[in-house]
Every structure is written in structure tokens, then in C-alpha cells.
Amino acid sequence: MSKSRNNALEFSSVGSIIIDSAAGATAGNFGAIQFLKDATISAVAGESIGNIAKLQTSFSAGTVIYGKFTSVTLSAGLVALHKI
Q: What pTM value is reported for the model?
């Protein structure tokens, strides 16, 4: 079984970044996007995520998306990007 941080859900041990639409593109290695307020993703990049462009849409507060994301840009809302 893999021992990656993502599989162990150890996000809190490496921190998070809170961003809004004013942040611009935020780059890093993130294992989850947690929507703190209703938000719209205007651009997103990641590794091993099929059809990632379909995530360029609106999400409700409370939604969490898991994957390996390398860049996130919002046009509205507030999210927590959990580092891996």
C-alpha cells in the first residue's frame, strides 16, 4: 500500500493556503481543495487527473475535491488548498 501523504490524509501536517479571487494563480502541491464559501474555479492544473478542465466551474461551500493539484485560480469565492 502506498505511503504518500495524500493517501494518509495528512494534510494538516504540512499546512494549507487560503485563497480568494484576488490571489491570482496559486502554485504548489495540493491534495485537496476545500470550498469555504461558494466559489468558481477559473483555472486548475494537476497531475493524474483526467478531464481536469471540467473542474472549471462553480462549487458550493462545504465541497472538498481530492487529487494532486499544482495550480488553482478562482474567479469568485474562498477556498483552502491543503498541501501535500
A: 0.86
